[in-house]
Amino acid sequence: MKVLVTGGAGFIGSHVVDKLIQEKCQVVIIDDLSTGLRENINPAATFFQLDIRNDKILSLFMREKFDFVIHLAAQTMVHKSLEMPDYDCDINVLGTVNVLEACRKTGVKRIVFSSTAAVYGNVTTLPVMETNPKAPTSFYGLSKLTCESYLSLYKEVYGLDFMILRYANVYGERQGDGGEGGVISIFTRNINRNQPLLIFGDGSQTRDFIYVGDVANANYQSLLVNHANKICNISTQIETSVNILIDHISRISGKMVSRNYNEKREGDIYKSCLSNAVARDDLDWQPHMTLIEGLDKTYHSLI
Ligand SMILES: NC(=O)c1ccc[n+]([C@@H]2O[C@H](COP(=O)([O-])OP(=O)(O)OC[C@H]3O[C@@H](n4cnc5c(N)ncnc54)[C@H](O)[C@@H]3O)[C@@H](O)[C@H]2O)c1
């Protein structure tokens, strides 16, 4: 099968591409390299340096005739979305609509969309189910939630099948330190340079850290399932505080780590842990990597 991966030069996208190639898919990548890196691109994939907002993507879709599209290209920074909501909307919403238009005009069978825990906003009851109320606290969360609504209406109006994957905090090899969930790569790099770790808040805030290889598997699995048009959290369903996370990385590094606690940041979610029951049932997927093992791999790849 022929699969287009948007954002395939990025952190998660490059792991998705590797997985697809391992599974003998024919893979094409669109990426503008705004945060992605040429060196992340699997040489077995065909690469086009292109912005997802560019009109040219329609002729590319017409020529290449993709069976599936895995759409990861996005502006991923929560804080940038708060500073420049128009920029976030332009890439994340209008860019996605441009991709959707190309999908429905060229008969793509299914689109897999990378969404986020940020669509839920601050929650009181954990773990968060897919049916929980959605109250994003950033324009990034709002733009992703808006895209989800576009996907569901494209299904209704044009019959384009979708799978929506709402990731918890993804970590692993090749992670940059700018985007969502980059805390592990930032801490790793700082520990390696013997720099203190800057923590926003008291470190008791929690996240659900999911390994990138497990996320890549969920994307591949989304192409295979018979029953599409589902929304699945992709998570470990385990809550880890930032303080505990630092303890783990510190132990792995064998170094003493100094911690600087600062004001908590606007738009940050306090607690996060996503139920993965739907993904287990509907996607026949489950996470395999433990946090300790995943941190060990990540730490040694980033230093
Ligand atoms: N990392 C996480 O923890 C996390 C959590 C939830 C959701 N997500 C989502 O997963 C996806 C991948 O995120 P990531 O962490 O790998 O980030 P990333 O920045 O590494 O990857 C994004 C890729 O998209 C490309 N890109 C950005 N704007 C583009 C444009 N206009 N046209 C073409 N390409 C463009 C970038 O160059 C990059 O290669 C994003 O949609 C993000 O919102 C990530």
What does this structure look like?
- The protein is of the alpha/beta class.
- It has a seven-stranded parallel sheet, sandwiched between helices. It has a two-stranded parallel ribbon with strand order 7-10. It has a two-stranded parallel sheet with strand order 8-13.
- The chain contains ten helices and 13 strands.
- The chain has a domain at 2-171 and 209-235: 3-Layer(aba) Sandwich (Rossmann fold).
- The longest helix is centred in the first third of the chain and has 21 residues, at 85-105.
- It starts with a strand and ends with a helix.
- The protein is globular.
- The chain has helices spanning 11-22, 56-64, 78-83, 85-105, 139-158, 183-192, 212-224, 242-253, 277-282, 291-302; strands at residues 2-6, 26-31, 46-49, 68-71, 110-116, 161-167, 169-171, 197-200, 206-207, 209-211, 230-234, 240-241, 259-262.
- Bound molecules: nicotinamide-adenine-dinucleotide.
- The site of nicotinamide-adenine-dinucleotide has 32 residues, from helix 1, strand 2, helix 4, strand 5 and strand 7.
- Nicotinamide-adenine-dinucleotide is lined by residues 7, 9-13, 30-36, 51-53, 72-76, 91, 95, 114, 116, 167, 169-170, 176, 179-181.
Tell me what the CATH architecture of the domain at 2-171 and 209-235 is: 3-Layer(aba) Sandwich
Say how many strands there are: 13
Radius of gyration, Cα only, in angstroms? 18 Å
- Which oligomeric form is depicted? single chain
CATH superfamily of the domain at 2-171 and 209-235: NAD(P)-binding Rossmann-like Domain
Question: Poorly predicted ranges (pLDDT <50, ≥5 residues)?
Answer: none
Distance between the termini: 36 Å
Q: What ligands does this structure carry?
A: nicotinamide-adenine-dinucleotide
Shape: globular
- How do the SSEs run, as a string of H and E? EHEEHEHHEHEEHEEEHEEHEHH
Which strands sit side by side, in order, in the main sheet?
3-2-1-4-5-6-11
Largest sheet: 7 strands, parallel
Number of helices: 10
Mean pLDDT: 95
What proportion of the residues form beta strands (DSSP E)? 15-25%
Helix content: 25-40%
Structural class based on helices, strands and sheet pairing: alpha/beta
